[in-house]
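Our collaborator T.R. sent over the components below with a one-line note: 'Predict the complex.' Nothing else. No constraints on interfaces, no templates requested, no preferences about which chain binds where. So this is a plain run: every listed entity goes in together, and whatever single assembly comes back becomes the starting point for the next discussion.
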Amino acid sequence: MRLKFIGVALLCAFFMMNIVFTQFMVHQYYYENYVNVLIFGGLNIVVFPLALFTYKKTKNEKA
Amino acid sequence: MPSDKNNKIPFNEDNYTHNIERNNERKLDRRGFMKTLVGAAGVFAISSLPWGAVAAKELLGLGDKEYPHKKITDVSKLAIGDALEFKFPGDHDDALLIRLSEKKYVAYQNACTHLRCPVFWVKEEGEMVCPCHHGKFDVETGVPTAGPPRRPLPEIQVKVENGAVYAVRVKRYEA
Ligand code: FES
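Returned assembly:
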């Protein structure tokens, strides 16, 4: 793959992870497994700095 | 031919609506797309916080409040095989009481565990049915038996006292 799109690909992957974690978090909440809610909520939160870091690293990537 | 239309385009612009002020508003380049994705990650992170907060609250035991026992109905008013809607624990939490036999009552919070439509009792079939997407629930346990719901209905503990049925508390799922 062209290097130029690595950032986009990574960010899309993070986005997908966000969706999955959120879905899980909400369902686990209704199942009353509150520890799992905290775990997936926490994962959702750490994805943000990772995404920001990825953006900063790859925004000037050339083909 | 004279026309009252002015066919001149006044200026070249890259938007079709005239209320977008930023330059190149309608263009999306790679960097802009990446910014959007980072922003989305931020939104996800922020919106996870309230869930985490409520979960932490429940874990610390602040969530299991005891609600005052609430009278649902008199035993004499509910025939065997019939159901009655009531509210428990809050005024907006729909619930359903079903009398299965002389002594046996079951009660559930009847917001469907799929998309929260009200589940009702079908006496002839002996099961609880959700009208929205035809989810079905087992009346003895609240476990979904058909359709989209995957999670059992939360059961409400009831007791019979002095010829009346009371709602005691909402049972937790066993982990
Ligand atoms: S809301 Fe009950 S089955 Fe969809």
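Summary for T.R.: The longest helix of chain A spans residues 6-30.
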